[in-house]
């Protein structure tokens, strides 16, 4: 098994010390794993390629990977985000940068799974989606273990959007927690946030039933309530009045929801979908409102049916 790292010094450190000095630093990396900073070395003749880079880096990394992918390899994306500049899902980005021969084998892994707990071997369950179910089943069989259970799906759009959009709602929930609004408010934002996610995703071609599963409600619950959630932590800090620049500068990992918020706002506008929670998070990130004013604006919206 080969692990690619952009930084050659990082790859050398992993091979030498059997630990990643930047992320999950306390975990021992198994001896069969070899790190390299050479994409050709990492990818040549591989049957299964897992893309696990931040959403804004997928285009460049996979464009560089393209010449080295074997025609028969399965590409698995674990990226939970939307490309900031284009508002594209990861499946759309991959279709642009990789040869059509690979397109049927694009699979997308998403669901409630913190990396820290997976590394500890704690029980987790995720969804693997592919339009060609046979490839999803192949990935399911390759990655499943007694403590990591994969389910399959064919709704690529739904699984992709569930993983990306829940990060924005997690920021909103964090804002409520930072304001100390209590558990009632948290439950309300999660529930109405799921409604917003489903509304936009359905308009984009997803199956609404997907959002009752692991890549929808499951991932949303985890990211909105788990203390390991980076997006929730960003929201808590915003709710406490901290500035976004200061919050981001103190993090060594990417909180995808920050970039995703702007992309989701554009997609909502494009598809004519109302997303007031997303709009509140966007305005707060942009600095045009305070956290308290944003929460008040949501509570004072026109009363309506829950199904709207």
What does this 3D model show about the protein?
The protein has about 300 residues and is an alpha/beta fold. It folds into 2 domains: about 1-155, Rossmann fold, CATH 3.40.50; about 165-300, N-(1-d-carboxylethyl)-l-norvaline Dehydrogenase, domain 2. It has 14 helices and 7 strands. It has helices spanning about 10-15, 40-45, 60-65, 90-95, 115-120, 135-145, 155-180, 185-205, 215-225, 230-240, 245-250, 255-270, 275-285, 290-300, and strands at about 1-5, 35, 50, 75, 105-110, 125-130, 150-155. The protein has a 5-stranded mixed beta sheet, sandwiched between helices. It has a two-stranded parallel ribbon with strand order 1-2. Strand 1 (about 1-5), helix 1 and strand 2 (about 35) form a beta-alpha-beta unit. Helix 7 (about 155-180) runs antiparallel to helix 8 and helix 7 crosses helix 13. The longest helix is centred in the middle third of the chain and has 23 residues, at about 155-180. It is globular, with a radius of gyration of 19 Å. The N and C termini lie far apart (about 50 Å). The mean pLDDT is about 95.
